[in-house]
Amino acid sequence: VDTLVLQRLTAELDVKLRGTRIRQVYALPKDDVVLACGSRKTLRLWFSAAPNQPHLYLRPGQHPTPTQPPGFAMAARRFLNGRRIEAIEAVPGERIVELHTTGTDAIRVVFELIPRRATALIVDHTEQVRAAWKPQRGRPAVGEPYTAPVADGRTAIGELDAKIWSSLSSSVDSHDLVRGLLRSIAGMSPLTAREITARHRSGVPLRMAAQMEVERAAKEPMAARIYSPVRLNELACLPSVRKFVVAPFLMRHIEKTPETLCLKEFSTLSEAVATFYPLQAKLMALEIARHGLRSGIDGGIARLLRTLDAVSEDANAAGDAEQHRRWADLLLTHPHTKLTQAIARVPDAFGDGNPVEIPVDPSRSVVDNAQAYYQRARRAQRSAKRTTKRYRELKARITALRQLSSEVAVARKIRDCQRLAKGALNQGVKIATSAWSIAEAPFSVEKETTGNKPPSIETPIGLSKKSHRTRHGQDKLRRGAAGIDVFTSSDGFKIFVGRNADANERVTHKLARPNDFWLHAEGPGSHVVIRNPERIKEPSQVALQEAASLAAYFSSARGATKANVRWT
Predict the structure, then answer these.
(1) Which residue among 14, 166, 184, 500 has the highest number of C-beta atoms inside a 10 angstrom radius?
(2) Which CATH number is 68's domain given?
(3) Which residues in the chain land under pLDDT 50?
């Protein structure tokens, strides 16, 4: 979590949680700890020790509860349950937050949100560590005195001398300047470093730009927001850290970039991070699932191809049954042929009469050699039946796995990946899915605003997605339409999008009518159909453009600058 975000977020947490009681402590699978606080309305303080992105935030809603609480949860409940929160404070310039409780024997919880070394420690009034979540090497163990992490030796911004400022100003590349600011200045936030760099590149001296941004970070009114390359409810893969950002207020270095970025604003920073981090966890789990599917399916295809080669070699080694039988017949036709060498030359009694060379064993008689060839012919015939069947089975499995592999790129949900893993298992490829679970279930996301920029493959805007509502008011796809998304173009055309192989089959061969328009991007992807009940000759340019955007978005070309889409 960015230190700029953490400082602002901690202030909100202090206001919302001060004076509430800790009712229960949960230690969830993998990396997460939840403190349930309050009485009437339960507030959940969620801490994740995820190695790459540790974070702390407040969120409502339920969470999975393990049947067997880990040892940390049992110890934490003994020390924290029933205690009232006195304050929540962020250590200035550090990724450390301390939760203080009331009482003469006050207990505090220290959340250390340091990447790859994140941990949570429960410390008593004697400064002894009583429980540790995800203990880290070099940090105090249970029963040892608590000590703060060793300072990294960076200098406060007000104490930097002119030589360091001059060295930083000489950085030619913006990325080098950002890295230099982070390495040199204590407590420097990556977001603040990028803002300083953007201001300096516009002509402001570096030292002055840094001072202006530090003052702005302290005084700027809250305007929480999330920046992302597409609308949040359309994110299907984890963007880069520079394109997927949660910020406490406007970030000029992002909004001045020429790239198309979507903006989602929130009334509080807590609401923003409660949307951002669960969504990030979902996308990370989806990336893990896709990677596991790709490697598992590709490995299965490679193994089947090797088996296919072995089957072909076995078939070739068995020989040609017809040729063996013909040689046996020719040998029996000339039973008195003398075998003095490994090759017998006999006239072709069933052809043009020219001599035929037949490999033989000179130590055996002509009849014995003929019987051996009959035996080899029978063996080759049996082998041919087996290998032909086996060859077809292997080819069918390889084709099915390649189809599944093409669907991995357009899988947008964990359940889509689980369906593909089940399909791979049906073809004999087992893929481990235990690491695909998401402890932080994402919230629903409302429609975001975008700038006045043209839609790209990543942002098929102007479309509204329709769901079929039952009389009870619940969203439900009509019978037989699972895996099919229905959109409406800006000018009213219905657009069907298949999301997997079965859905593509239904869209093209069952839902589409002879007068409808069919679209498909080059390479693996979804089948897209524009309904044409009026039987017009061509769709509108708006509908065609938006349907083509969908075809490109739900294909292997997603993320590319452009894609070829064919329509008929």
Answers:
(1) 500
(2) 2.30.310.10
(3) 443-462, 467-480
Residues in the chain: 568
Q: Where are the alpha helices (DSSP H) in 81-170?
A: 162-169
Q: Tell me, what's the pLDDT at 122?
A: 95
Given 403, 427, 447, the domain boundary residue is 403
Q: How far apart are CA 249 and CA 269, in angstroms?
A: 9
pLDDT at 59: 83
The tens digit of pLDDT for each residue in 538-559 reads 888 888 988 988 888 888 777 6
Q: What is the pLDDT of residue 481?
A: 56
* Strand ranges, E, within 225-308: 225-228, 245-247, 262-265
Residues 393 and 490 in one domain: no
Sequence-distant (≥ 6) Cβ neighbours of residue 157 within 8 angstroms: 185, 186, 187, 188, 210, 211, 214
Question: For residues 438 and 440, what is the distance between their CA atoms, to the nearest angstrom?
Answer: 5
Range of the domain at 28: 3-133
- My answer on whether 126 and 8 are in the same domain is yes
Asked if the structure places residue 58 within a domain, the reply is yes
What is d(CA 81, CA 36) in angstroms, rounded to the nearest whole number? 9
Number of structural domains (the chain) is 3
- CA 320, CA 348: separation in Å to the nearest integer? 18
Within a domain: residue 336?
yes
Domain end call among 358, 383, 403: 403
Query: Cα(438)–Cα(556) distance, rounded to whole angstroms?
Result: 25
Give the pLDDT confidence score for residue 115 in this predicted structure: 86
What pTM, to 2 d.p., does this model score? Answer: 0.64
For residues 49 and 63, give the distance between their C-alpha atoms in angstroms, rounded to a whole number. Answer: 16
Alpha carbon dihedral 416, 422, 425, 430, in 10-degree steps, equals 70
pLDDT of residue 386: 74
